[in-house]
Every structure is written in structure tokens, then in C-alpha cells.
């Protein structure tokens, strides 16, 4: 190192002389607008002193311009300083397109004149590449005098020494992406929950793979490596040995593989879209979320009219208003509201002397429609809030959390009492509704506990006496009502059926629902068959298969 006090003792080739020469070069580059700026690229040219002859000095200028253009991610500007501008622009554009670097730094060392008059410059490229982190490699550039003008002699190895003609730089998934796991720590076997990974980029494209892409891939710095690839086919032909990447972290869910398998098997024979959700009423943990077919996660995100399964909420509002299970309840075939006719499935009616317990168990629409006068315009919305419906749930996955708007008129309220009109829910919401009855209060469902920041708390609590009476009504639905498909099954099932109309056909098409819980275990569930017919006749047998499998 030269000490401050001795600088003036040097002869004509002093440190001051080197700085004057480098300063003139820097001024030229700034004037040409070639130095990168904006914080996304850095270029520096090291070396070069008074010992350089005129040829090395002349060769350094086009090299500096070429590397500055490359560092600035401007392929065409860089290519102008080469002997094959079209080929250089094409390859550099391909590399920048494939890697999409957020920052590029190029450090070039001093040049060395060769016997043939060319000047050789070593340089180091450092790129920050999303998904691959910081990539660094060394290369060399030859600068030649072509008819009195110095140009970079551009070939594929100029970009990377291991590239050959017809190749480019690209990224390839390294296969070290972490997995989405079930509650037992094994890879989760639920495709519509797990989602997919884009094979070209290695990034999560849907489901939990997309939501937790940074976690699974190691913060976006893992999962890809630098390769030489064929420019025509895109096929990787050589791994270029980039630095080791940080491993991703697994995402663990609450899915119980045994319950998930039973749910998937129960849907296997249904030829259409369907879902089963199971939750633990004691802590809200989602034990199963099965979808048929895969793809859309209708179990958690689907939006459907819940039909008569929503009578759990309507019953809660009526019970809170003073109604008792043993109170008389008329169930005619039809109910007319301002010119709109409501009817029971297959136009059944119940005999005189029937009770509220009977109309709930048999799912009598006309009773609930005619009982709308007992309810204010906000009563159903308020009752639904005690079940968490319409809140903002932090489950650890994308969910639809239901909607029960304030009623806007008599017909709107009449339809809402039986889960039609503007009432919407997902299978998860309806499984949680059954869990709330069993538990006596709402406990927000959870799928990925480690990622839940704040569980939603219902603004109202289900009245203890109301919860007890709802349990009585749901058990009666199994023993003497529309959920007879579950009668005699072990575990003391409680349930509510639903047949929800949708679309504009006449007669209307219907979704088939059944929700419930096991009195003897921590299991609540919902079954949805899109365009599946009747809750009791069609969803009931599916629910029975699910519960039988778990009873073995």
C-alpha cells in the first residue's frame, strides 16, 4: 500500500497517474450513458494503468460499454459493441428473459494483449435471480480490432464459459421443494388441497402449494439451479453447478389421513361434483376436505345455497324467541307469500298435532316460511353470526365464509328461512355449523395452525339452552326424520338434511346436502352433492358410507 506521506516521491507512473487515466475512462462512460443506474445493476472495470499500451486502452472502451449494457439488462445496447450484434442481442435477450434477474453486477479485471493483437479481459458476473438467489460465474471476453474499430468478439462462451453454440442459460427446478403434510407428518394425499406446482418454473400454481410457495421453496431462494439449455427445445443439457440452495420448510396441516381417506372413498361412486368436510368440534381442526373431482377446492371455497340445512340457524332464531320443540306446528303442502308459492319436497304435509320437533326432523319448508312473522329482518343474520357465518376466517387456506344478508322484504325473508334467496355457504361453513351445535359455541376451523395469525371470534354466542334444543332436534332428524339413512349407525349421529334449489329450470335442479355430528366422538361433518338430488335420499347414503368407514 502507498502511504500518504510518500505519494509525491513516485516518478511518472504514480498512483495519481493511474487515477487520472481511469478518471478519463469513467468520464467517457458517463457521457455515453453506459453506466447502470437505478439500483438494479452495477458495473465496474478494474485494472488499467499507465503501463497499458494504446491497444489495451482502446480495447477497454467497447468492453466497458458491452458489459455496462449487459449489467443494465439492455441486450441491444450491449450487442452494438460486438462483432455480431444480431447474434449477441438474441442470446443476451434469451438469457435475461429466462433468468429475469432483479440485479446484475459485472466486475471486469485488466486486459492482457495477446500475440495476435487481440486483448483478453476476464470478468465476473453476479446476478440476483428470483427462485435461485445469487448466481455468480467467471467468463472472458476477447476484444478485436476490426478495420480500425475495436469490438467484443462475441460467442456463446462469452456469456458463460460452459455454453456452446445453440445453448442458452436457464433455470431448472432442483427438486428440493418441501412438502405439504398431513397431521401425522406424511405427504398430504388430497390433490385439491395441496394444489399444483408449475413444472417450468418450480413455483406453486394453486392450492397450498401456491399460498405457501415461499415457505415450501425456502423463501423464494430455493428450488432452482442454473443450467445450460438447448435454445430450440428448452431442455436442460448441463447443470452449471450453482451454489447450494436453502431447503424449503414443510407446511403441516390438520388433515387426519384416516378421515380424509374415508371421505374420499365415500364420494368415489358419485358421478359429479361433490365435497365432504370434517372438523373437530372441540378445537376447530379440519380433519378432512375431500373434493370430487380434484381441481376446484369446493370443500372450502365453494359458494352454494345451503337449503334446509340452514334451518339450524332459523331454528336457533325461533328457539331464542321462545319457541319450544314440543310446541304445535302446522305443516301444509303449500305456503303462498305475495304471489310466490313455496312447497315441501314431493308436496308432503304433516297431520294435525305435529310439533316443531316434527317439522324440523321432517324438514317442512312451509312451516318455516309461515313462521317468518316471528322474525325481524335482522334475526337470521344475527342468529347466523353466533355460528361464525359471514365473518373473516383465518384458516390458513383460502375459504368462503358464508353470507346471510339482512332481509329486504317478505319474500326475501321467506326464502331465507329455508336457506335460499341470498343465503350462501361453503361445505366448510356447514360442517362448522354442525360443530357449533355440538360444542355449544363457535370455534373457527383451522387447517394450517402454524400460519393462523388470529382466529375469528363470533360477535355473539349461541345460547346454552338453544344449543341443547338444537341437539335434540338434530338427533330426532336421524331417529324419526329425513336423515333416516344414518339411523342405527354407531356413534349417535345427529344430522340435518337439505335440498337446495338453484338455476332457472322448471322444475328447478337441486344440490343435495347433509350436515351433522357424532354424539359419541369429536367429529362434525358436511356432505354436498352438486346437482345431486335430495338431501335425505342422495346425500344421506354418502354420509352413511363415510361414517361407517370411520366406525370400523
Q: Give the biggest sheet.
A: 6 strands, mixed
**CATH architecture grouping of the largest domain:** 3-Layer(aba) Sandwich
Q: According to CATH, what is the topology of the largest domain?
A: Beta-lactamase
Helical residues, percent: 25-40%
Please identify which CATH superfamily of the largest domain we are dealing with: DD-peptidase/beta-lactamase superfamily
| Average of per-residue pLDDT values | 89
Helical run tally: 18
Structurally, how many domains make up the residues? 3
DSSP strand content: 15-25%
Basic shape: elongated
What is Rg?
Answer: 35 Å
State the name of the first-level CATH class of the largest domain.
Alpha Beta
Attribute tags:
552 residues, alpha+beta, Nuclear Transport Factor 2, Chain: A, Beta-lactamase, six-stranded mixed beta sheet, 18 helices, disordered N terminus
Describe what you observe in this structure.
The strands form five sheets. Strands 1, 2, 3, 4, 5 and 6 form a six-stranded mixed β-sheet that branches. The protein is built from 18 helices and 18 strands. The protein has helices spanning about 15-30, 55-70, 75-80, 85-100, 155-160, 190-195, 205-210, 215, 255-265, 300, 310-320, 355-360, 365-370, 380-385, 410-415, 425-440, 465-480, 535-550, and strands at about 40-45, 105-110, 110-115, 120-130, 135-145, 150-155, 165-175, 180, 225-230, 235-240, 250, 275-280, 285-290, 335, 340-345, 495-500, 510-520, 525-530. Helix 9 packs antiparallel against helix 18 (about 535-550) and helix 11 (about 310-320) crosses helix 17. With about 550 residues, it is α+β, with helices and mostly antiparallel strands. A hairpin with a 6-residue loop joins strand 12 (about 275-280) and strand 13. Helix content is about 30%, strand content about 20%. It has three domains: about 10-160, NTF2-like, domain 1 (Nuclear Transport Factor 2, Chain: A, Roll), CATH 3.10.450.100; about 180-250, no CATH class; about 270-495 and about 515-520, Beta-lactamase (3-Layer(aba) Sandwich).
Amino acid at each position: 500500500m502507498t502511504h500518504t506521506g510518500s505519494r509525491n516521491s513516485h516518478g511518472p507512473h504514480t498512483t495519481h497517474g493511474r487515477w487520472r487515466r481511469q478518471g478519463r475512462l469513467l468520464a467517457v462512460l458517463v457521457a455515453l450513458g453506459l453506466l447502470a443506474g437505478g439500483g438494479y445493476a452495477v458495473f465496474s472495470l478494474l485494472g488499467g494503468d499507465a503501463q497499458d499500451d494504446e491497444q489495451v486502452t482502446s480495447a477497454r472502451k467497447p468492453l466497458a460499454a458491452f458489459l455496462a449494457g449487459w449489467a443494465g439488462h439492455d441486450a441491444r445496447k450491449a450487442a452494438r459493441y460486438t462483432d455480431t450484434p444480431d447474434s449477441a442481442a438474441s442470446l443476451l435477450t434469451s438469457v435475461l428473459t429466462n433468468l429475469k434477474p432483479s440485479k446484475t453486477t459485472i466486475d471486469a479485471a485488466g486486459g492482457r494483449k495477446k500475440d495476435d493483437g487481440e486483448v483478453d479481459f476476464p470478468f465476473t458476473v453476479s446476478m440476483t435471480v428470483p427462485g435461485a438467489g445469487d448466481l455468480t460465474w467467471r467468463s472472458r471476453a476477447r476484444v478485436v480490432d476490426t478495420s480500425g474499430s475495436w469490438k467484443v468478439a462475441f460467442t456463446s462462451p462469452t456469456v458463460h464459459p460452459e455454453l456452446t453454440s445453440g445453448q442458452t442459460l436457464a433455470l431448472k427446478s432442483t427438486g428440493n421443494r418441501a412438502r405439504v403434510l398431513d397431521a401425522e407428518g406424511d405427504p398430504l394425499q388430497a390433490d385439491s388441497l395441496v394444489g399444483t406446482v408449475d413444472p417450468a418454473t418450480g413455483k406453486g400454481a394453486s392450492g397450498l402449494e401456491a399460498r405457501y410457495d415461499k415457505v415450501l421453496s425456502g423463501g423464494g431462494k430455493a428450488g432452482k439451479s442454473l443450467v445450460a439449455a438447448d435454445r430450440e427445445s428448452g431442455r436442460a443439457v448441463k447443470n452449471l453447478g450453482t451454489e447450494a440452495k436453502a431447503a424449503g420448510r414443510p407446511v403441516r396441516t390438520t388433515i387426519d389421513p384416516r378421515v380424509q381417506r374415508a371421505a374420499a372413498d365415500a364420494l368415489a361412486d358419485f358421478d359429479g361434483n361433490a365435497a365432504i368436510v370434517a372438523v373437530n368440534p372441540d378445537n376447530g381442526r379440519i380433519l378432512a376436505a375431500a373434493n370430487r373431482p380434484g381441481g376446484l377446492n369446493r370443500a372450502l371455497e365453494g359458494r352454494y345455497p345451503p337449503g334446509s340445512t340452514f334451518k339450524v340457524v332459523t331454528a336457533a332464531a325461533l328457539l331464542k324467541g321462545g319457541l319450544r320443540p314440543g310446541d304445535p306446528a302446522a305443516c301444509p303442502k303449500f305456503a303462498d307469500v305475495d304471489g310466490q308459492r313455496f312447497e315441501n319436497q314431493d308436496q308432503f304435509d304433516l297431520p294435525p298435532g305435529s310439533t316443531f320437533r316434527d317439522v324440523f326432523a321432517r324438514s317442512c319448508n312451509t312451516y318455516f316460511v309461515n313462521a317468518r312473522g316471528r322474525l325481524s329482518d335482522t334475526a337470521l343474520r344475527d342468529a347466523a353470526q353466533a355460528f361464525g357465518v359471514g365473518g373473516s376466517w383465518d384458516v390458513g387456506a383460502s375459504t368462503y365464509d358464508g353470507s346471510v344478508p339482512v332481509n329486504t322484504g317478505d319474500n326475501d325473508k321467506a326464502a331465507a328461512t329455508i336457506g335460499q334467496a341470498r343465503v350462501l355457504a361453503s361445505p366448510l361453513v356447514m360442517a362448522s355449523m354442525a360443530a357449533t351445535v355440538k360444542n355449544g359455541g363457535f370455534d373457527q376451523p383451522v387447517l394450517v395452525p402454524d400460519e393462523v395469525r388470529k382466529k375469528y371470534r363470533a360477535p355473539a354466542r349461541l345460547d346454552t339452552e338453544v344449543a341443547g334444543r338444537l341437539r335434540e332436534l338434530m338427533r330426532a332428524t336421524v331417529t324419526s326424520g329425513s336423515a333416516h339413512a344414518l339411523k342405527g349407525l354407531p356413534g349417535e349421529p345427529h344430522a340435518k338434511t337439505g335440498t337446495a334449489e338453484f338455476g332457472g329450470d322448471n322444475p328447478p335442479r337441486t344440490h343435495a346436502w347433509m350436515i351433522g355430528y357424532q354424539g359419541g366422538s369429536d367429529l362434525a361433518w358436511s356432505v354436498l352433492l352438486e346437482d345431486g338430488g335430495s338431501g335425505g335420499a342422495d346425500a344421506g347414503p354418502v354420509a352413511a358410507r363415510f361414517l361407517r368407514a370411520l366406525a370400523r
